[in-house]
Specification:
heterodimer; A: mainly alpha; Helix Hairpins; B: mainly alpha; 2 domains; 7 helices; extended
Chain lengths: ~110, ~170
């Protein structure tokens, strides 16, 4: 159970960064840390003590393998996370080109 | 046991990544988090995930360095320090209250509920012929999810092209 709590601490560090920081790059870093924490949490749920990787071999029992479904889904999640980071970094670069800063409180030209 | 050390290192590196003033240093600290996450996947018996995470982490490092290098970075000052920190901590506290109720429903660490994936482990080889069950699940049993993932990457690439294009920009 403590390992879930450590993973949660990592998530909270990312949440703090994403909510509190005023630099756009720091906000992106917070988002990425949150994504890493969630991926690690899902893999931790599927882990079996003294388990083996879910790759069949002649000397391997089916009983002591870790959960393959979670790993397969997390593989999808990692790649989707990369797509998210691509889009967010592109938007941040565009904002820097237009406003000349990464500070989110200076980006106020659309304010009514 | 190694997983505890890796997690503590990841937390320290994450705090460093958020608190360092220099942006390139913080991007590199973030990459330390990602690479130790790759090691953690290897410890948790997920070699496919470790390889994928390694590649994705390097691509993410390249993207973030491309975003931060060659920009003159004015120092971002934090104003209203007390109010911002207190409201953020209150938000995290509300989140933790929900987590406290959710954490009791989870299975104990090391004993997963394998109701569906037990079937996959039993019949995976005879149905698909793949020795690696993870790829069998990703490509055969849950092939539609892989199709959805590809669609998401495609949409994201189109979004990047639409955001970064130069022609037709209203000046």
């Amino acid at each position: 159970m403590e390992i879930y709590l450590l993973c949660l601490v990592l998530f909270c560090v990312g949440l703090y960064g994403a909510v509190r920081k005023r630099n756009l790059i720091k906000i992106i870093i917070g988002l990425v840390i949150m994504e890493y924490a969630v991926n690690l949490f899902l893999v931790l749920i599927g882990y079996r003590l003294q388990g083996r990787a879910p790759i069949l071999a002649s000397d391997q029992q089916v009983l002591n393998m870790v959960d393959p479904l979670v790993q397969s889904m997390v593989m999808t999640t990692i790649v989707i996370g990369l797509a998210l980071i691509m889009l967010v970094v592109a938007i941040a670069v565009r904002i820097y080109e237009k406003y000349g800063t990464f500070d989110i409180t200076k980006i106020r030209k659309l304010r009514g | 046991m190694e997983i505890y050390l890796l997690l503590i290192f990841m937390i320290v590196a994450a705090v460093a990544a958020l608190e360092i003033k220099d942006l390139i240093s913080s991007v590199i600290a973030l990459s330390a988090v990602g690479l130790s996450l790759s090691l953690a996947f290897l410890v948790l018996k997920a070699p496919n995930l470790a390889i994928t995470q390694l590649v994705v982490e390097l691509l993410c490092l390249i993207l973030l360095i491309h975003a931060t290098i060659k920009k003159d970075l004015p120092l971002v000052k934090d104003g209203r320090w007390l109010f911002n920190t207190v409201s953020t901590l209150a938000f995290v506290a509300v989140f933790l209250v929900f987590i406290y109720f959710a954490l009791k429903e989870l299975p104990v660490f090391g004993m997963p509920i394998m109701r569906v994936s037990g079937e996959y482990l039993d019949k995976g080889f005879s149905l698909t012929g793949a020795a690696n069950i993870v790829t069998a699940v990703a490509l055969k049993f849950r092939g539609l999810d892989s199709l959805g993932e590809t669609v998401v990457i495609f949409v994201s690439a189109i979004g990047v092209l639409a955001v970064m294009r130069k022609v037709g920009k209203i000046r």
